[in-house]
Design goal:
The structure is a homodimer.
Chain A (H helix, E strand, L loop, with lengths): L8 H4 L3 H12 L2 E2 H5 L6 H13 L3 E6 L2 E6 L5 H11 L5 H12 L5 E3 L11
Antiparallel strand pairs in A: 1-3, 2-3
Helix pairs in contact in A: 5-6
The structure holds a DNA duplex (30 and 30 nucleotides).
Organism (chains A, B): Thermaerobacillus caldiproteolyticus
GO molecular function, one term (chains A, B): DNA-binding transcription factor activity
InterPro entries (chains A, B): ArsR-like_HTH, HTH_ArsR_DNA-bd_dom, HTH_MetalResp_TranReg, WH-like_DNA-bd_sf, WH_DNA-bd_sf
Chain lengths: ~120, ~120
DNA sequence: TTGACACGAAACCAAAAGGTTTCATATACT
DNA sequence: AGTATATGAAACCTTTTGGTTTCGTGTCAA
């Protein structure tokens, strides 16, 4: 036994409930009971979703007294990001190309200058 | 009728077969039979996967004689990208923050200077 | 030490997902 | 005209998924 993940990240985020859980955990660590307040289903059901998120490393858990605090582990989304980056190459917009470059250089030799925007940015 | 999607993009990419199909279509338009050559399952099964990809707008189809050519529609992945960008905010690396900025400014007031890299980038 | 709370495991169930085979239809080839 | 190719629809089957309820265990508070 060991790291055979059983649930990959793509499966993990396929379910809307699980995506919403991830959003909730972005704010702060939460125990199961608190999380399940946000859903029209039993605590046990939410618990099962959390197990899947755990298996795919999207959350971690930490015991605190009689509670178990679940915490977002956003780094796990890197795999998804990487997968996406392959396709960005095909959608023909300069910004995406820039980002693709940044992705692959991974914090290499890149200078960035962000001007202090004293002008309101008009969208479009 | 109409755009009630039934299959969202998250579900669509949850299946490994469908992800592989997307990769194949990145190279070029292909008919079902050609695609199914790459998989240990029936053409009909692949056809069903394609229907799901169609429903989520990840591919489009174009009739050509007796064939139907399936084509990648990478823009559909924007939704995924957008979803991801929310979480990048939480993963603490400067590059990701940069990309988050780029994302939200949408080609706004940003100066980028990419030096001609005469030095090999050592991955740390 | 007794009771209340927080939690996951187990057994169960209905519906959805992912396959199969068979069949009908449209197009192309000769 | 007649045969071969390309495809999707239909009916069917099995496994997985997402939910339920019930129960046992650990922890905290009196």
């Amino acid at each position: 036994m060991s790291a055979a993940p059983k649930h990959d990240i793509f499966q993990a985020i396929a379910d809307p409930t699980r995506r919403k859980i991830l959003r909730l955990l972005a704010d702060k660590k939460l125990p199961v009971t608190a999380i399940s307040k946000h859903f029209p289903m039993s605590r046990t059901a939410v618990s099962k979703h959390l197990r899947i998120l755990l298996e795919s490393k999207l959350v971690s858990v930490e015991k605190s007294g009689r509670e178990k605090l679940y915490k977002l582990q956003p780094e796990a989304l890197l795999e998804l990001k990487h997968w996406l980056s392959f396709f960005e190459q095909f959608w023909d917009n300069k910004i995406s190309m820039l980002k693709h470059f940044v992705e692959n250089e991974e914090a290499g030799n890149l200078n960035l200058i962000i001007p202090k925007s004293n002008e309101e940015s008009k969208d479009s």
